[in-house]
């Protein structure tokens, strides 16, 4: 059974159609990454899969259930989402923020438990936010703030995690740290990870399944070695490039160039074979 499916999904912003009759399948226990140019609908699609945006028609199926039929808390126990640019109330500490991830498990019969405490501590440890637990979120740097929000998402303890550009505001070292963390969650705990990423090379490295979006449609989907090509990068991003093999991971590596600085070497596309 797939983790998430959309069936004939139609999404609108006002009178503007974003997606029409979209069918997409997110494999369970895998890392799926959405790629595409700015404004192509990646974030909109992610939000609709998390029930943050109501479709005009069609449905989203989560673990075999129509997501529209589930209660808010039930959805929150099955799926966590980290949107772009989340904002915390002024004065809220990192620890208080991360504790919010346990909200779906609270009710008038069951208050804070040892399990909740353990989940929060583990999330802080995994994101290396323990030393900053008592700092207020608004006093943190952009990268620290992003890691605090990721900790809250992890504390939710869901089998499926959706993240919209989780490496925003992070330097390269922390980008790799966050993506390694998500990769470990996938490998060790079989969590389904769905992300929007702008860095195509990192997307190729970490994703089991890539979904390339163009003109509000799925242009291609599948493993990076199968779908990434110079034609795809040209068509989806309007960018000339060469595709070479990543010397460390044997995944496609996109080497872009524009109309300014020209390549020193004229490597023919057919000279490189990947996979």
UniProtKB/TrEMBL annotation:
It comes from the Bacteria. Keywords: ATP-binding, Cell membrane, Ion transport, Iron, Iron transport, Membrane, Nucleotide-binding, Transport. It holds the Pfam family ABC_tran. It is found in: Cell membrane. One of its GO terms (molecular function) is ATP hydrolysis activity. Residues 4-240 form the ABC transporter domain. GO terms for cellular component: plasma membrane. It is a peripheral membrane protein. The keyword Ion transport applies. One of its GO terms (biological process) is iron ion transport. The keyword Cell inner membrane does not apply. Signal peptide: none annotated. PANTHER family: IRON(3+)-HYDROXAMATE IMPORT ATP-BINDING PROTEIN FHUC. This is Cobalamin/Fe(3+)-siderophore ABC transporter ATP-binding protein.
